[in-house]
Design goal:
four-stranded antiparallel sheet, alpha+beta, 6 strands, two-stranded antiparallel sheet, about 180 residues
């Protein structure tokens, strides 16, 4: 959860700077043309919000080793291996309950899989656009685990950036930046 929070704070800082300076190259992941996690990380590195070594530590966990390198000027960031976190395409206009990041073992409104890395079906981490985070157990991964109460699920777990109020689709769909595999 601390790694997800560190990534969130750097992203919030970059998006806030972009809004203050009217600089569209400093924005939330969904407001940038980035389609991959590496592209988005490149924006964070180019802006000086995180270093490649920070990103390597942030995206690694037991069983999920992510290697981060950068080259050139401006730096182009490359990610290889397996990322422990995924980043959702949250935008400045999304509600505060939109999911910013989650551990890679979590797929929205889908039961956890014991073979998923990291953490298997033991639990998952979510951080929302409003900056709060939670650690949840295997019995909290789906809307049915919340008594089929979509509002409670979206309030606690969060909502996908392209899902409306009360809409709880299964799967991440195109809401996540493509990460290394």
């Amino acid at each position: 959860m601390n790694h997800a929070r560190e990534l969130y704070l750097a992203s919030l800082h970059m998006a806030t700077d972009g809004a203050a300076k009217s600089d569209p190259s400093l924005a939330w992941p969904g407001d940038l043309p980035a389609t991959s996690l590496a592209d988005y990380c490149g924006s964070l590195v180019q802006g000086g919000y995180l270093k490649p070594a920070d990103l390597q530590r942030i995206f690694s966990a037991p069983g999920a080793e992510c290697q981060v390198s950068s080259a050139g000027s401006p730096p182009i960031v490359t990610l290889t291996g397996k990322s422990a976190l995924k980043v959702y395409k949250v935008k400045s206009g999304d509600p505060s309950t939109a999911i910013f990041s989650a551990s890679s073992n979590y797929i929205y409104n889908t039961p956890l899989n014991a073979d998923s890395v990291p953490f298997g079906d033991k639990g998952f981490v979510v951080i929302r656009k409003r900056g709060d985070a939670g650690v949840y157990g295997r019995n909290q991964a789906t809307v049915s685990d919340w008594g089929n109460d979509a509002a409670a699920f979206q309030s606690k777990i969060g909502r996908l950036t392209d899902a409306g109020e009360g809409a709880v689709p299964s799967g991440d769909g195109s809401a996540v930046l493509a990460g290394p595999q």
